Amino acid sequence: MILAYLRHHLGRAAVAALAAFTLLPHAGVADVRIKDIAFFEGVRENQLVGYGLVVGLNGTGDSLRNSPFTEKSIEGMLERLGVGNLSEDRIRTENTAAVMVTAMLPPFARHGSTIDVVVSSLGDAASLRGGTLIVTPLSGADGEVYAVAQGPIAVAGYAAQGANASIVEGVPTVARIENGATVENEINFELASLNSLRVALRDPDMTTASRIADAINRALGPNSAQALDPGTVQVDPYGKGNSIPEVMSAIEGLPVEPDMRAKVVIDARSGTIVMGGNVRIAEVAVSQGGLTVTVKENIEVSQPQPFSIGETVVVPQTDVQVEEVQTRFTVLQGDVSLQRLVDGLNAIGVTATQTISILQAIKAAGALHADLEIV
């Protein structure tokens, strides 16, 4: 009846527009795969680092006077390539930059596979755009070389400079090389040598760990898994007739409903506030206001009359204005949901910066039942 009335008096376009604002029913936390919230202990990446040179820069490289290590590196590289002793000659090139090269070696990386690398300037180079990284060994924490990097680099930022002005967009002294390193040494890790598996949660939580253990027990059989602590679930795969890789494949695809802690994350620099759905507050009264003081300085010049004795003086004129914002108290009821909390803050008419101050004050008063993290 209502839709027919609206269609008759407002038209079909208006009815379609009203239908677009229909509220959807609230959906609970969706099930996620175990592989998306946890990983198997021992199956991890390893950090690699190396020191190298980027050549081919268009005059934007290191100034050798301020970066003596770059000059020494150039001399050593040329000597290894057969160029004579250059210790008595002064190198004046500006097309080379010393860089640190970092990469992540993924688990089970094999000989000949490639990985991405990040190249970062070590000296005072203005930009790495257009450069090429020379062969750079990448070592692990044990000092062994696991990969070798080389190739043209890609810089996301740029820098331009004139006689009286300059502009910099992004960071032109940091670059990437996609598939820029080749794996030369493997990390020995055999799954068949494991007697048991351990599932490590990325965000430790006892409730989530218990749910993961229950899901594994339903899939592999009773007493196959148990939660050791909020971040670890131990799995005994033997006696089930499956190999370790088959058990891992069966576990990582199991759906689990993770539990979330009540948490409020605040980025004070950008004014971003993120609140989880489990955030609750006790009954509290909030008033937000402020006093704005504006001071303006106007400079006036007092000029003497013609043919008179006097001097020109500068007379400053100061204008001070005070503006006080009218405030009111808003009572936020106890144990409210996230939606009502946001509605209550919006009712006061506060900005993002003021909301941050309010949340900090509510937390200090002991009325915010959530972790408050400021990043």
UniProtKB/TrEMBL annotation:
Query: Coiled coil located at which positions?
Result: none
Residues spanning the signal sequence: 1-27
Q: List the record's Gene Ontology CC terms alphabetically.
A: bacterial-type flagellum basal body, distal rod, P ring; outer membrane-bounded periplasmic space
What are its GO biological-process terms?
bacterial-type flagellum-dependent cell motility
Key words of the record: Bacterial flagellum, Cell projection, Cilium, Flagellum, Periplasm, Signal
An example Pfam family from this entry, by short name, is FlgI
Tell where it localizes: Bacterial flagellum basal body
Which GO MF term does the entry hold, naming one? structural molecule activity
Give the source's domain of life in one word.
Answer: Bacteria
Under HAMAP family, the record lists:
FlgI
Q: Which family does it belong to?
A: Belongs to the FlgI family.
Q: Which NCBIfam families match?
A: PRK05303.1
What's this chain's function?
Assembles around the rod to form the L-ring and probably protects the motor/basal body from shearing forces during rotation.
Subunit info here reads: The basal body constitutes a major portion of the flagellar organelle and consists of four rings (L,P,S, and M) mounted on a central rod.
Task: Write the protein's name.
Answer: Flagellar P-ring protein
In the UniProt record, what gene is named as encoding this protein? Answer: flgI
